[in-house]
Please model this.
Amino acid sequence: MGTSQGLTGPDLKQGVREEAVREGEPLLGHIDGAPALLVRHHGRVHAVGAKCTHYGGPLAEGIVDADAIHCPWHHACFDLETGRAHGPALDAIPCWDVRLENGTLRAASARQVDVAEVHEPKSVVIVGGGPAGVACAEALRAEGHRGAITMVTAEGSDPVDRPNLSKDYLAGDAPEEWIFLRTSSALASHGISLVGEAAVAIDRAARVVRTAGGRELAWDALLLATGAEPIHLPIDGAALPHVRVLRTLADSRAIIAAASPAHPCVVIGASFIGLEVAASLRARHVAVTVVAPEAVPLARVLGKEIGGLVRGVHEHNGVAFRLGRKPAHIERDRVVLDDGSSLPAALVVMGVGVTPRTGLAAAAGLEVERGVVVDGAFQAAPGVWAAGDLARYPWRGELVRIEHFQVAVRHGQAVARAMLGRPAAPDVPFFWSRHHDLTIGYVGHAERFERAEVHGNLDAREAHVVYHDNGRIRAVATIGRDRLGLEVEAAMARDDDAAVHALVTR
Ligand SMILES: Cc1cc2nc3c(=O)[nH]c(=O)nc-3n(C[C@H](O)[C@H](O)[C@H](O)COP(=O)(O)OP(=O)(O)OC[C@H]3O[C@@H](n4cnc5c(N)ncnc54)[C@H](O)[C@@H]3O)c2cc1C
Ligand code: FES
Model:
Protein backbone atom coordinates (compact mmCIF):
# COMPACT_ATOMS: atom_id res chain seq x y z
CA MET A 1 0.00 0.00 0.00
CA GLY A 2 2.79 2.50 0.88
CA THR A 3 4.92 3.87 -1.93
CA SER A 4 8.58 4.61 -2.42
CA GLN A 5 7.96 8.39 -2.08
CA GLY A 6 6.81 7.90 1.51
CA LEU A 7 3.17 8.23 0.58
CA THR A 8 0.70 6.18 2.58
CA GLY A 9 -2.33 4.21 1.48
CA PRO A 10 -3.73 3.44 -1.96
CA ASP A 11 -3.38 5.35 -5.21
CA LEU A 12 -6.83 6.95 -5.29
CA LYS A 13 -6.78 7.22 -9.08
CA GLN A 14 -6.47 3.43 -9.18
CA GLY A 15 -9.40 3.36 -6.80
CA VAL A 16 -10.66 1.63 -3.67
CA ARG A 17 -13.68 -0.54 -2.96
CA GLU A 18 -16.74 1.57 -2.28
CA GLU A 19 -17.30 0.06 1.18
CA ALA A 20 -13.76 1.05 2.29
CA VAL A 21 -14.82 4.71 2.50
CA ARG A 22 -16.93 5.05 5.61
CA GLU A 23 -19.07 8.03 6.53
CA GLY A 24 -17.03 10.76 8.28
CA GLU A 25 -13.78 8.73 8.31
CA PRO A 26 -11.18 10.17 5.91
CA LEU A 27 -9.32 7.50 3.94
CA LEU A 28 -5.70 8.48 3.33
CA GLY A 29 -4.08 7.68 0.01
CA HIS A 30 -2.42 9.67 -2.74
CA ILE A 31 -3.13 11.23 -6.10
CA ASP A 32 -0.46 12.16 -8.65
CA GLY A 33 2.31 11.78 -6.07
CA ALA A 34 0.72 13.91 -3.34
CA PRO A 35 -1.21 12.81 -0.24
CA ALA A 36 -4.96 12.90 -0.72
CA LEU A 37 -8.14 11.78 1.01
CA LEU A 38 -11.43 10.20 0.12
CA VAL A 39 -14.10 11.53 2.44
CA ARG A 40 -17.70 10.36 2.60
CA HIS A 41 -19.95 13.06 4.00
CA HIS A 42 -23.76 12.79 4.02
CA GLY A 43 -23.34 9.80 1.70
CA ARG A 44 -21.37 11.69 -1.00
CA VAL A 45 -17.69 10.92 -1.56
CA HIS A 46 -15.14 13.72 -2.09
CA ALA A 47 -11.47 13.53 -3.06
CA VAL A 48 -9.35 16.33 -1.57
CA GLY A 49 -5.73 17.12 -0.72
CA ALA A 50 -4.57 15.68 2.62
CA LYS A 51 -2.09 18.40 3.62
CA CYS A 52 -3.28 21.52 5.39
CA THR A 53 -2.14 24.63 3.55
CA HIS A 54 -1.42 26.46 6.82
CA TYR A 55 1.61 24.58 8.22
CA GLY A 56 1.09 21.21 6.55
CA GLY A 57 -1.07 19.54 9.25
CA PRO A 58 -2.39 16.00 8.58
CA LEU A 59 -6.02 16.41 7.52
CA ALA A 60 -6.52 12.64 7.73
CA GLU A 61 -6.29 13.05 11.53
CA GLY A 62 -8.88 15.81 11.57
CA ILE A 63 -12.64 15.61 11.66
CA VAL A 64 -15.36 16.01 9.04
CA ASP A 65 -18.08 18.42 10.04
CA ALA A 66 -20.37 20.99 8.45
CA ASP A 67 -19.35 20.09 4.87
CA ALA A 68 -15.65 20.64 5.60
CA ILE A 69 -12.54 18.79 6.73
CA HIS A 70 -10.94 20.33 9.82
CA CYS A 71 -7.20 20.36 10.56
CA PRO A 72 -6.21 19.05 14.00
CA TRP A 73 -3.26 21.43 14.46
CA HIS A 74 -4.69 24.97 14.36
CA HIS A 75 -8.29 24.35 13.25
CA ALA A 76 -8.21 25.50 9.64
CA CYS A 77 -11.01 23.92 7.65
CA PHE A 78 -11.59 23.32 3.98
CA ASP A 79 -14.87 22.98 2.08
CA LEU A 80 -15.19 19.44 0.74
CA GLU A 81 -16.92 20.67 -2.41
CA THR A 82 -14.52 23.47 -3.39
CA GLY A 83 -11.43 23.05 -1.20
CA ARG A 84 -11.86 26.67 -0.10
CA ALA A 85 -9.87 27.56 3.03
CA HIS A 86 -11.07 28.99 6.32
CA GLY A 87 -8.60 30.50 8.78
CA PRO A 88 -5.89 30.20 9.78
CA ALA A 89 -5.31 28.81 6.27
CA LEU A 90 -5.56 31.13 3.29
CA ASP A 91 -4.98 28.71 0.40
CA ALA A 92 -7.48 26.14 -0.83
CA ILE A 93 -6.66 22.43 -0.97
CA PRO A 94 -6.99 20.62 -4.31
CA CYS A 95 -10.19 18.70 -5.12
CA TRP A 96 -10.87 15.98 -7.65
CA ASP A 97 -14.03 14.61 -9.16
CA VAL A 98 -14.87 11.09 -7.96
CA ARG A 99 -16.35 8.30 -10.08
CA LEU A 100 -18.03 5.10 -8.92
CA GLU A 101 -17.58 2.22 -11.40
CA ASN A 102 -18.45 -1.38 -10.61
CA GLY A 103 -18.18 -0.83 -6.88
CA THR A 104 -14.82 0.99 -7.12
CA LEU A 105 -14.41 4.65 -6.19
CA ARG A 106 -11.76 6.48 -8.23
CA ALA A 107 -10.46 10.04 -8.14
CA ALA A 108 -10.77 11.47 -11.65
CA SER A 109 -9.69 14.85 -13.00
CA ALA A 110 -8.93 17.90 -10.85
CA ARG A 111 -12.19 19.65 -10.08
CA GLN A 112 -12.74 23.04 -11.69
CA VAL A 113 -14.65 25.26 -9.31
CA ASP A 114 -16.76 27.77 -11.20
CA VAL A 115 -17.38 30.98 -9.32
CA ALA A 116 -19.80 33.60 -10.62
CA GLU A 117 -18.13 36.98 -11.15
CA VAL A 118 -19.28 39.86 -8.96
CA HIS A 119 -18.47 43.48 -9.79
CA GLU A 120 -19.98 45.22 -6.77
CA PRO A 121 -18.68 46.83 -4.62
CA LYS A 122 -16.66 48.51 -7.38
CA SER A 123 -13.90 49.58 -5.07
CA VAL A 124 -12.82 47.99 -1.77
CA VAL A 125 -10.22 49.63 0.46
CA ILE A 126 -8.68 47.62 3.28
CA VAL A 127 -6.72 49.48 5.96
CA GLY A 128 -4.24 47.04 7.51
CA GLY A 129 -1.87 44.44 6.08
CA GLY A 130 -2.29 41.87 8.84
CA PRO A 131 -4.07 38.52 8.58
CA ALA A 132 -7.57 40.03 8.74
CA GLY A 133 -6.83 42.40 5.85
CA VAL A 134 -5.06 39.81 3.70
CA ALA A 135 -7.75 37.18 4.34
CA CYS A 136 -10.51 39.62 3.37
CA ALA A 137 -8.79 40.63 0.13
CA GLU A 138 -8.14 37.04 -0.94
CA ALA A 139 -11.57 35.78 0.11
CA LEU A 140 -13.18 38.51 -1.99
CA ARG A 141 -11.34 37.15 -5.01
CA ALA A 142 -12.20 33.55 -4.10
CA GLU A 143 -15.87 34.56 -3.82
CA GLY A 144 -15.73 35.97 -7.36
CA HIS A 145 -15.25 39.69 -6.67
CA ARG A 146 -13.65 41.40 -9.67
CA GLY A 147 -13.76 45.04 -8.53
CA ALA A 148 -10.72 47.04 -7.38
CA ILE A 149 -9.09 46.06 -4.07
CA THR A 150 -6.49 48.28 -2.43
CA MET A 151 -4.74 47.38 0.81
CA VAL A 152 -3.14 50.23 2.74
CA THR A 153 -0.56 49.09 5.24
CA ALA A 154 1.87 50.71 7.63
CA GLU A 155 3.49 47.33 8.32
CA GLY A 156 6.85 48.45 6.87
CA SER A 157 7.12 45.12 5.03
CA ASP A 158 4.96 42.75 3.05
CA PRO A 159 2.32 41.09 5.28
CA VAL A 160 3.95 38.69 7.73
CA ASP A 161 2.94 35.50 9.52
CA ARG A 162 2.89 37.33 12.85
CA PRO A 163 2.76 34.28 15.17
CA ASN A 164 6.03 33.09 13.69
CA LEU A 165 7.81 36.31 14.73
CA SER A 166 8.06 35.02 18.30
CA LYS A 167 8.51 31.33 17.45
CA ASP A 168 10.60 29.60 14.75
CA TYR A 169 11.77 32.82 13.11
CA LEU A 170 12.95 34.36 16.38
CA ALA A 171 14.47 31.04 17.48
CA GLY A 172 16.48 30.88 14.25
CA ASP A 173 14.66 27.77 12.97
CA ALA A 174 12.87 29.38 10.02
CA PRO A 175 14.41 31.18 7.07
CA GLU A 176 13.24 34.71 6.39
CA GLU A 177 11.34 33.78 3.22
CA TRP A 178 8.92 31.73 5.37
CA ILE A 179 7.88 34.74 7.39
CA PHE A 180 5.77 36.39 4.73
CA LEU A 181 2.08 35.67 4.77
CA ARG A 182 1.92 37.08 1.27
CA THR A 183 4.33 39.03 -0.90
CA SER A 184 3.15 42.15 -2.69
CA SER A 185 3.72 40.37 -6.01
CA ALA A 186 1.52 37.43 -4.92
CA LEU A 187 -1.20 39.91 -3.95
CA ALA A 188 -0.74 41.74 -7.24
CA SER A 189 -1.27 38.47 -9.11
CA HIS A 190 -4.78 38.47 -7.60
CA GLY A 191 -5.29 42.10 -8.62
CA ILE A 192 -4.82 43.36 -5.05
CA SER A 193 -2.77 46.58 -4.86
CA LEU A 194 -0.65 47.21 -1.81
CA VAL A 195 -0.03 50.79 -0.73
CA GLY A 196 2.77 50.91 1.84
CA GLU A 197 1.64 54.05 3.64
CA ALA A 198 -0.29 54.78 6.81
CA ALA A 199 -3.91 55.79 6.39
CA VAL A 200 -4.30 59.08 8.25
CA ALA A 201 -7.99 59.92 7.84
CA ILE A 202 -11.29 58.46 6.72
CA ASP A 203 -13.91 60.73 5.20
CA ARG A 204 -17.09 58.68 5.50
CA ALA A 205 -19.27 61.25 3.72
CA ALA A 206 -16.97 61.40 0.67
CA ARG A 207 -16.08 57.69 1.03
CA VAL A 208 -12.37 58.37 0.81
CA VAL A 209 -9.32 57.19 2.80
CA ARG A 210 -6.41 59.65 2.94
CA THR A 211 -2.86 58.37 3.32
CA ALA A 212 0.31 59.83 4.79
CA GLY A 213 1.70 60.13 1.25
CA GLY A 214 -1.21 62.36 0.17
CA ARG A 215 -3.23 59.73 -1.73
CA GLU A 216 -7.00 59.77 -1.72
CA LEU A 217 -8.42 56.27 -2.10
CA ALA A 218 -12.12 56.08 -2.93
CA TRP A 219 -14.13 53.15 -1.55
CA ASP A 220 -17.57 51.68 -1.87
CA ALA A 221 -16.70 49.21 0.91
CA LEU A 222 -14.10 49.80 3.60
CA LEU A 223 -12.50 47.32 5.99
CA LEU A 224 -10.65 48.61 9.03
CA ALA A 225 -8.17 45.97 10.18
CA THR A 226 -5.56 48.09 11.92
CA GLY A 227 -5.00 45.46 14.61
CA ALA A 228 -3.33 46.25 17.88
CA GLU A 229 -0.09 47.73 19.11
CA PRO A 230 2.16 46.70 21.98
CA ILE A 231 1.84 48.53 25.28
CA HIS A 232 4.96 50.30 26.52
CA LEU A 233 4.99 50.42 30.32
CA PRO A 234 5.17 54.02 31.54
CA ILE A 235 8.34 53.56 33.60
CA ASP A 236 11.63 55.40 33.49
CA GLY A 237 14.00 53.94 30.93
CA ALA A 238 11.24 52.34 28.81
CA ALA A 239 12.39 54.37 25.81
CA LEU A 240 16.04 53.29 26.03
CA PRO A 241 17.27 51.73 22.77
CA HIS A 242 17.83 48.26 24.23
CA VAL A 243 14.16 48.05 25.30
CA ARG A 244 12.06 46.31 22.64
CA VAL A 245 8.53 45.22 21.94
CA LEU A 246 7.50 42.58 19.37
CA ARG A 247 4.85 43.12 16.74
CA THR A 248 6.56 43.52 13.37
CA LEU A 249 9.30 41.87 11.35
CA ALA A 250 11.53 44.87 12.13
CA ASP A 251 10.92 44.27 15.88
CA SER A 252 11.83 40.59 15.55
CA ARG A 253 14.95 41.40 13.53
CA ALA A 254 16.02 43.95 16.15
CA ILE A 255 15.68 41.39 18.95
CA ILE A 256 17.66 38.84 16.91
CA ALA A 257 20.39 41.43 16.27
CA ALA A 258 20.67 42.15 20.01
CA ALA A 259 20.44 38.51 21.16
CA SER A 260 23.75 37.07 22.26
CA PRO A 261 24.77 34.29 24.66
CA ALA A 262 27.15 36.87 26.14
CA HIS A 263 24.36 39.29 27.10
CA PRO A 264 21.51 38.57 29.50
CA CYS A 265 17.93 39.46 28.58
CA VAL A 266 14.99 40.41 30.77
CA VAL A 267 11.49 39.77 29.44
CA ILE A 268 8.92 41.95 31.16
CA GLY A 269 5.54 40.22 31.21
CA ALA A 270 4.69 36.52 31.37
CA SER A 271 2.25 36.93 28.47
CA PHE A 272 2.02 34.47 25.57
CA ILE A 273 4.35 36.66 23.53
CA GLY A 274 6.71 37.30 26.46
CA LEU A 275 7.05 33.59 27.17
CA GLU A 276 7.48 32.66 23.51
CA VAL A 277 10.23 35.27 23.23
CA ALA A 278 11.89 33.73 26.29
CA ALA A 279 11.75 30.26 24.70
CA SER A 280 13.14 31.47 21.38
CA LEU A 281 15.97 33.37 23.05
CA ARG A 282 16.86 30.27 25.05
CA ALA A 283 17.15 28.44 21.71
CA ARG A 284 19.80 31.09 20.93
CA HIS A 285 21.52 30.32 24.29
CA VAL A 286 20.64 33.71 25.77
CA ALA A 287 20.24 33.91 29.57
CA VAL A 288 16.61 34.98 30.09
CA THR A 289 14.70 36.10 33.18
CA VAL A 290 10.96 36.74 33.00
CA VAL A 291 9.59 39.39 35.39
CA ALA A 292 5.85 39.53 36.00
CA PRO A 293 3.47 40.56 38.80
CA GLU A 294 1.33 37.40 38.76
CA ALA A 295 2.14 34.35 40.86
CA VAL A 296 1.58 31.88 38.01
CA PRO A 297 2.17 32.68 34.31
CA LEU A 298 -0.92 32.68 32.07
CA ALA A 299 -3.19 31.78 35.02
CA ARG A 300 -5.76 34.46 34.14
CA VAL A 301 -6.38 32.88 30.73
CA LEU A 302 -5.47 29.22 31.17
CA GLY A 303 -5.80 28.65 34.92
CA LYS A 304 -3.08 27.93 37.45
CA GLU A 305 -2.73 24.26 36.49
CA ILE A 306 -1.66 24.85 32.88
CA GLY A 307 0.16 28.00 34.02
CA GLY A 308 2.23 25.90 36.43
CA LEU A 309 3.00 23.38 33.69
CA VAL A 310 4.10 26.17 31.33
CA ARG A 311 6.33 27.65 34.01
CA GLY A 312 7.93 24.25 34.66
CA VAL A 313 8.60 23.71 30.95
CA HIS A 314 10.32 27.09 30.69
CA GLU A 315 12.35 26.51 33.84
CA HIS A 316 13.39 23.10 32.54
CA ASN A 317 14.73 24.91 29.47
CA GLY A 318 16.70 27.39 31.53
CA VAL A 319 14.32 30.36 31.79
CA ALA A 320 14.44 32.07 35.21
CA PHE A 321 11.33 33.71 36.70
CA ARG A 322 10.90 36.65 39.07
CA LEU A 323 7.16 36.38 39.68
CA GLY A 324 5.18 38.61 42.02
CA ARG A 325 7.47 41.48 41.00
CA LYS A 326 7.15 44.53 38.75
CA PRO A 327 9.92 46.52 37.09
CA ALA A 328 10.42 49.89 38.80
CA HIS A 329 12.69 51.37 36.15
CA ILE A 330 15.16 50.38 33.47
CA GLU A 331 18.80 51.43 33.20
CA ARG A 332 21.29 50.89 30.38
CA ASP A 333 22.54 47.61 31.79
CA ARG A 334 19.86 46.48 34.26
CA VAL A 335 16.20 46.31 35.19
CA VAL A 336 15.47 47.50 38.72
CA LEU A 337 12.49 45.75 40.35
CA ASP A 338 9.93 47.10 42.79
CA ASP A 339 11.64 45.37 45.74
CA GLY A 340 14.88 47.27 45.01
CA SER A 341 16.68 44.25 43.56
CA SER A 342 17.98 44.40 40.00
CA LEU A 343 18.64 42.07 37.08
CA PRO A 344 21.44 42.59 34.57
CA ALA A 345 20.02 43.16 31.08
CA ALA A 346 21.64 44.13 27.80
CA LEU A 347 18.29 43.45 26.09
CA VAL A 348 14.82 44.04 27.55
CA VAL A 349 11.68 42.81 25.78
CA MET A 350 8.31 44.10 26.95
CA GLY A 351 5.51 41.60 26.46
CA VAL A 352 2.84 43.28 28.54
CA GLY A 353 -0.11 43.15 26.19
CA VAL A 354 -1.50 45.16 23.33
CA THR A 355 -4.09 47.83 22.80
CA PRO A 356 -6.35 48.04 19.73
CA ARG A 357 -5.44 50.74 17.19
CA THR A 358 -8.73 52.60 17.23
CA GLY A 359 -7.54 56.16 16.44
CA LEU A 360 -8.59 56.23 12.77
CA ALA A 361 -12.00 54.73 13.52
CA ALA A 362 -12.67 57.09 16.42
CA ALA A 363 -11.70 60.13 14.35
CA ALA A 364 -14.10 58.91 11.66
CA GLY A 365 -16.94 58.93 14.18
CA LEU A 366 -17.32 55.16 14.52
CA GLU A 367 -18.36 53.70 17.87
CA VAL A 368 -15.26 52.80 19.84
CA GLU A 369 -15.42 50.99 23.16
CA ARG A 370 -12.18 49.08 23.83
CA GLY A 371 -12.24 48.24 20.11
CA VAL A 372 -14.41 49.20 17.18
CA VAL A 373 -17.94 48.03 17.94
CA VAL A 374 -19.48 45.99 15.11
CA ASP A 375 -22.60 43.92 14.60
CA GLY A 376 -22.77 40.16 14.11
CA ALA A 377 -21.64 40.56 10.49
CA PHE A 378 -18.69 42.81 11.49
CA GLN A 379 -20.31 45.98 10.15
CA ALA A 380 -19.47 49.19 12.03
CA ALA A 381 -21.48 51.61 9.84
CA PRO A 382 -22.98 51.55 6.33
CA GLY A 383 -20.22 50.46 3.97
CA VAL A 384 -17.67 50.10 6.82
CA TRP A 385 -16.53 46.88 8.49
CA ALA A 386 -13.95 46.16 11.19
CA ALA A 387 -12.17 42.85 11.84
CA GLY A 388 -9.42 41.09 13.74
CA ASP A 389 -7.76 42.43 16.89
CA LEU A 390 -9.55 45.75 16.32
CA ALA A 391 -13.16 44.55 16.34
CA ARG A 392 -15.46 44.18 19.35
CA TYR A 393 -18.25 41.90 18.24
CA PRO A 394 -21.13 39.89 19.68
CA TRP A 395 -20.39 36.25 20.47
CA ARG A 396 -22.45 33.94 22.71
CA GLY A 397 -24.32 36.80 24.37
CA GLU A 398 -21.50 39.24 25.05
CA LEU A 399 -19.29 41.68 23.19
CA VAL A 400 -15.78 40.32 22.81
CA ARG A 401 -12.51 41.44 21.26
CA ILE A 402 -10.12 38.57 20.66
CA GLU A 403 -6.44 38.69 19.76
CA HIS A 404 -5.90 35.44 17.87
CA PHE A 405 -4.51 34.79 14.42
CA GLN A 406 -7.18 32.23 13.43
CA VAL A 407 -9.89 34.63 14.56
CA ALA A 408 -8.43 37.50 12.52
CA VAL A 409 -8.32 35.37 9.36
CA ARG A 410 -11.88 34.10 9.88
CA HIS A 411 -13.09 37.67 10.46
CA GLY A 412 -11.46 38.83 7.24
CA GLN A 413 -13.03 35.95 5.33
CA ALA A 414 -16.45 36.67 6.87
CA VAL A 415 -16.22 40.38 6.02
CA ALA A 416 -15.53 39.47 2.38
CA ARG A 417 -18.81 37.56 2.31
CA ALA A 418 -20.63 40.39 4.09
CA MET A 419 -19.34 42.94 1.58
CA LEU A 420 -20.86 40.80 -1.19
CA GLY A 421 -24.19 40.65 0.62
CA ARG A 422 -23.75 37.01 1.67
CA PRO A 423 -24.34 35.57 5.14
CA ALA A 424 -21.48 36.20 7.55
CA ALA A 425 -21.14 35.44 11.24
CA PRO A 426 -18.37 34.91 13.78
CA ASP A 427 -16.93 31.40 14.12
CA VAL A 428 -15.86 29.70 17.34
CA PRO A 429 -12.53 31.29 18.39
CA PHE A 430 -9.39 29.19 18.55
CA PHE A 431 -5.76 29.89 19.40
CA TRP A 432 -2.60 27.93 19.91
CA SER A 433 0.53 28.74 21.81
CA ARG A 434 3.87 26.98 21.83
CA HIS A 435 6.34 26.81 24.71
CA HIS A 436 9.46 24.82 23.83
CA ASP A 437 8.02 21.36 23.06
CA LEU A 438 4.61 22.04 24.67
CA THR A 439 1.74 23.13 22.42
CA ILE A 440 -1.58 24.25 23.85
CA GLY A 441 -4.79 24.57 21.84
CA TYR A 442 -7.72 26.61 23.15
CA VAL A 443 -11.27 26.57 21.77
CA GLY A 444 -13.99 29.05 22.71
CA HIS A 445 -13.54 32.19 24.74
CA ALA A 446 -13.75 32.85 28.47
CA GLU A 447 -13.49 36.56 29.33
CA ARG A 448 -13.38 35.22 32.88
CA PHE A 449 -14.00 31.82 34.48
CA GLU A 450 -15.24 30.64 37.86
CA ARG A 451 -13.67 27.21 37.63
CA ALA A 452 -10.98 25.49 35.58
CA GLU A 453 -11.48 21.74 35.69
CA VAL A 454 -8.55 19.50 34.71
CA HIS A 455 -9.24 16.15 33.02
CA GLY A 456 -6.39 13.76 32.28
CA ASN A 457 -2.72 14.03 33.14
CA LEU A 458 -1.05 17.39 32.55
CA ASP A 459 2.41 16.08 33.45
CA ALA A 460 2.04 13.38 30.81
CA ARG A 461 0.88 16.09 28.34
CA GLU A 462 -2.39 14.28 27.77
CA ALA A 463 -5.13 16.45 29.23
CA HIS A 464 -7.82 19.05 28.73
CA VAL A 465 -9.00 21.87 30.95
CA VAL A 466 -12.61 23.04 30.95
CA TYR A 467 -13.40 26.67 31.81
CA HIS A 468 -16.83 27.18 33.40
CA ASP A 469 -18.56 30.50 33.89
CA ASN A 470 -22.11 31.33 34.83
CA GLY A 471 -23.37 27.81 34.26
CA ARG A 472 -21.80 27.35 30.83
CA ILE A 473 -18.64 25.83 29.45
CA ARG A 474 -16.98 28.85 27.86
CA ALA A 475 -13.75 27.33 26.62
CA VAL A 476 -11.64 24.18 26.57
CA ALA A 477 -7.83 24.01 26.44
CA THR A 478 -6.22 20.83 25.13
CA ILE A 479 -2.74 19.38 25.42
CA GLY A 480 -2.10 16.28 23.30
CA ARG A 481 -5.84 16.06 22.56
CA ASP A 482 -6.18 17.84 19.23
CA ARG A 483 -9.16 15.80 18.12
CA LEU A 484 -11.15 16.65 21.24
CA GLY A 485 -10.48 20.34 20.55
CA LEU A 486 -11.99 19.93 17.07
CA GLU A 487 -15.01 18.05 18.38
CA VAL A 488 -15.65 20.71 21.02
CA GLU A 489 -15.37 23.41 18.37
CA ALA A 490 -17.94 21.63 16.20
CA ALA A 491 -20.35 21.31 19.15
CA MET A 492 -19.87 24.97 20.11
CA ALA A 493 -20.49 25.98 16.49
CA ARG A 494 -23.88 24.23 16.76
CA ASP A 495 -24.42 26.00 20.11
CA ASP A 496 -24.94 22.52 21.57
CA ASP A 497 -23.98 22.87 25.24
CA ALA A 498 -25.07 19.31 26.05
CA ALA A 499 -22.73 17.91 23.40
CA VAL A 500 -19.85 20.06 24.67
CA HIS A 501 -20.47 18.77 28.18
CA ALA A 502 -20.65 15.15 27.01
CA LEU A 503 -17.38 15.50 25.08
CA VAL A 504 -15.36 16.98 27.90
CA THR A 505 -16.60 14.49 30.50
CA ARG A 506 -16.58 11.27 28.48
C1 LIG B 1 4.75 37.96 18.18
C2 LIG B 1 3.32 37.53 18.09
C3 LIG B 1 3.00 36.18 18.22
C4 LIG B 1 1.67 35.76 18.13
N1 LIG B 1 1.40 34.43 18.26
C5 LIG B 1 0.11 34.01 18.13
C6 LIG B 1 -0.20 32.62 18.24
O1 LIG B 1 0.65 31.78 18.47
N2 LIG B 1 -1.49 32.25 18.09
C7 LIG B 1 -2.47 33.15 17.85
O2 LIG B 1 -3.62 32.76 17.71
N3 LIG B 1 -2.20 34.47 17.75
C8 LIG B 1 -0.93 34.93 17.89
N4 LIG B 1 -0.65 36.26 17.81
C9 LIG B 1 -1.76 37.22 17.62
C10 LIG B 1 -2.08 37.42 16.15
O3 LIG B 1 -0.92 37.58 15.39
C11 LIG B 1 -3.00 38.61 16.01
O4 LIG B 1 -4.21 38.30 16.66
C12 LIG B 1 -3.27 38.95 14.55
O5 LIG B 1 -2.10 39.34 13.90
C13 LIG B 1 -4.31 40.06 14.42
O6 LIG B 1 -4.50 40.33 13.08
P1 LIG B 1 -5.08 41.71 12.54
O7 LIG B 1 -5.09 41.60 11.06
O8 LIG B 1 -6.33 42.02 13.25
O9 LIG B 1 -4.05 42.83 13.01
P2 LIG B 1 -2.48 42.96 12.87
O10 LIG B 1 -1.86 41.66 12.60
O11 LIG B 1 -2.04 43.75 14.04
O12 LIG B 1 -2.31 43.85 11.58
C14 LIG B 1 -2.71 45.19 11.56
C15 LIG B 1 -2.17 45.84 10.33
O13 LIG B 1 -2.68 47.16 10.25
C16 LIG B 1 -1.64 48.05 9.87
N5 LIG B 1 -2.00 49.40 10.31
C17 LIG B 1 -2.27 49.86 11.54
N6 LIG B 1 -2.62 51.16 11.51
C18 LIG B 1 -2.59 51.51 10.20
C19 LIG B 1 -2.85 52.72 9.50
N7 LIG B 1 -3.24 53.84 10.11
N8 LIG B 1 -2.70 52.72 8.16
C20 LIG B 1 -2.32 51.60 7.50
N9 LIG B 1 -2.08 50.43 8.11
C21 LIG B 1 -2.21 50.40 9.44
C22 LIG B 1 -0.43 47.46 10.59
O14 LIG B 1 0.76 47.98 10.04
C23 LIG B 1 -0.66 45.99 10.29
O15 LIG B 1 -0.22 45.70 8.99
C24 LIG B 1 0.66 36.71 17.92
C25 LIG B 1 0.98 38.08 17.81
C26 LIG B 1 2.30 38.49 17.90
C27 LIG B 1 2.65 39.95 17.79
S1 FES C 1 -1.40 23.24 10.09
FE1 FES C 1 -3.50 23.07 9.72
S2 FES C 1 -4.31 24.73 10.75
FE2 FES C 1 -2.21 24.97 11.05
Summary: The longest strand covers residues 34-41. The chain has a mean pLDDT of 96. Residues 299-316 form the longest helix (18 residues).
